[in-house]
Design a protein that fits this description.
CATH architecture of chain A: Orthogonal Bundle
Helix content of chain B: 25-40%
Structural class of chain B: alpha+beta
Distance between the termini of chain B: 135 Å
Order of helices and strands of chain B: HHHHEEEEEEEEEEEEHHH
Number of helices of chain A: 7
Distance between the termini of chain A: 34 Å
Number of domains of chain B: 2
Strand order of the largest sheet of chain B: 1-2-5-4-3-12
Number of helices of chain B: 7
Number of domains of chain A: 1
CATH topology of chain A: Arp2/3 complex 21 kDa subunit ARPC3
Radius of gyration of chain A: 17 Å
Largest sheet of chain A: none
Oligomer: heterodimer
Number of strands of chain B: 12
Chain lengths: ~190, ~350
């Protein structure tokens, strides 16, 4: 596909322009793709699902954190493969749906599928190793995830939902803060380069 | 070809999202028809619940260990604090119990005095005991200033205690009935058999001069005979604790009606005015009714021996026993007279009082 001829913009190389228009394209060869020991992704994803369901027993404070979302984002930006990122997000979301009773299966699946895809794509383009960038990334992805959920509720399920609330802002801040720590811990599971 | 490769993730995304949208639509459509996608939920739940169960078990164990060990770091200090509080409360409780017991004792004395208005009595408090362990004497807080004189009887509502043997300006010494120098004219309340209750050096006095032919059973009540000119008639002395034949008299051990080892408040009889029989029945009935049990007391009290005895002059600390306090062993009547006050005139020929029923 040829990029449109935008005369007002500086001329970019074809490959770079193509990548901007298609964030899901394969990563550049010079961007490091982190690898993990076998079973790490599956184990961490399951652990996140179990903890999310498990911690819910010990109070509503656990609702402030969306661990499956954090795992989806982390492995998305680390592996930098949109296909695996979206599939992992879909699997985690469907499991999350299966463990919840309020929504039909696919509710969280759709949102996390898209988040996994975008996280993988963004991870190939920006620095996701610095804590500040991780904080901002998770904050934005949280609200994007929430926006998808709200759209799904409104459009597909015909349920009332709000795009924004002070509680959501608090949730996003807490989740982003936890993500910085959690991502640093998960970095230790990487295979050495 | 290159475009298809580059667009593969996007196409995959679209396919996955579309599939899930269809799944949502399918569920929503089927839900109204009572058909729900349960298989996926079933698999997910079956896969994750064992891990949740394990997590719950682990958390419970960790929580138990935390609560059982690590969270107890302040328990020692709290325990010591509570222990100190308990000791303080126990001490306070003992003080209150002691005050209550003292109040009950004083109330009993007052009640006894009110029951016998015909007899002049002086309430007194035990302030000390003898330093000699073989001597059974007490010191009370009444003396010459209170019109106390020698050979006045000392009693409690339970029974006879002893008599005044030494008088000081503000205190007096009481010879208890279980002192070896003591002697009280006595008789069995039932058979009216006379004898003398004397101290033997043991905690319990003995009743002497009762011939072997006389029947003395354990529990028989023993009261004063009044012939010693110290105690009025029919005051309870105690009850027979054991009776064994001897030569020439029975060996009768008497359990005193008054708790001689726990005296705190007593009454000094200022005269030998005989107490009214109708009112003494209540006082004398207790040891008769329960001969095998110790006399009822209102409340336990610390032993009088615990009170530090006052310093006395050697002559006062060891009063010379009067010759008449050593009862001669001729006849019961003569012995009773001999056991009486040294100021009293012996009346060996005095007839025994008629039995009272």
């Amino acid at each position: 596909m040829r990029p449109p001829n935008l005369t007002l913009l500086p001329r970019l190389p074809d490959a770079e322009m193509a990548y901007m228009l298609n964030p899901g394209a394969e990563s550049d060869a010079n961007i490091e793709v982190h690898k993990y020991y076998g079973g790490t992704v599956l184990g961490v994803a399951l652990l996140a699902l179990v903890l999310q369901a498990f911690l819910h027993k010990y109070g509503r404070w656990s609702e402030l954190i969306d661990l499956p979302l954090l795992v989806t984002i982390y492995f998305g930006v680390s592996r930098r493969n949109p296909a695996t990122g979206l599939l992992l997000g879909a699997a985690i979301g469907i499991f999350q749906d299966a463990l919840s009773h309020d929504y039909p299966i696919g509710f969280y699946g759709i949102a996390k599928t898209i988040v996994g895809y975008l996280a993988s794509s963004v991870g190939a383009r920006i620095d996701t190793e610095h804590p500040v960038s991780r904080l901002g990334l998770v904050f934005l992805f949280f609200h994007f995830h929430q926006a998808v959920l709200t759209i799904t509720q409104r459009v597909l399920l015909n349920l009332p939902a709000r795009f924004f609330s002070p509680r959501l802002l608090l949730d996003s801040v807490v989740t982003a803060g936890v993500a910085v720590v959690l991502f640093a811990l998960l970095d230790r599971l990487r295979k050495p380069a | 070809m290159i475009d298809s490769v580059r667009h593969r993730p996007l196409a995959l995304l679209a396919a996955v999202v579309l599939a899930q949208v269809l799944l949502l639509a399918f569920q929503i459509k089927r839900e109204s028809g009572e058909h729900r996608v349960r298989l996926i939920r079933y698999w997910a739940v079956e896969m994750l619940t064992p891990m949740e169960r394990a997590g719950t078990w682990t958390f419970a164990k960790i929580g138990g260990a935390w609560r059982g060990y690590f969270a107890l770091k302040d328990a020692r200090a709290e325990n010591e604090k509570l222990r100190g509080e308990i000791e303080r409360l126990l001490l306070r409780n003992r003080q209150l119990e002691s005050q209550a017991a003292a109040g009950q004792r004083l109330a009993a004395l007052q009640s006894f005095r009110e029951q016998h208005p015909e007899a002049a009595m002086l309430p007194a408090e035990v302030i000390g005991a003898s330093a000699d362990p073989t001597s059974h004497t007490l010191f009370i807080n009444r003396g010459e200033h209170d019109r106390v004189r020698r050979n006045l009887g000392v009693i409690t509502p339970d029974g006879v205690v002893g008599k005044i043997v030494e008088v000081f300006p503000s205190s007096s010494q009481v010879l208890l009935i279980n002192d070896k120098d003591s002697g009280v004219g006595a008789l069995f309340a039932g058979t009216r058999t006379h004898g003398v209750v004397k101290g033997s050096g043991d905690p319990d006095p003995h009743m002497d001069y009762v011939v072997n032919d006389e029947k003395a059973a354990v529990g028989d009540a023993i009261v004063t005979s009044g012939e010693d000119r110290i105690f009025p008639k029919d005051l309870p002395i105690g009850a027979v604790a054991s009776a064994d034949p001897g030569n020439p008299f029975q060996v009768i051990r008497v359990r005193p009606a008054a708790r001689l080892d726990r005296l705190e408040n007593v009454l000094v009889l200022l005269s030998q005015q005989e107490l009214a029989p109708k009112k003494t029945e209540a006082a004398s009935a207790a040891p008769v009714a329960t001969p095998s049990t110790p006399p009822a007391h209102t409340a336990p009290a610390p032993a009088a021996a615990a009170v530090t005895p006052p310093k006395l002059a050697p002559s006062a600390a060891k009063p010379a026993p009067a010759s008449s306090e050593h009862a001669p062993a001729q006849t019961p009547a003569a012995a009773q007279s001999a056991a009486a006050s040294p100021n009293a005139t012996p009346k060996p020929d005095a007839p025994p009082p008629p039995p009272r029923r």
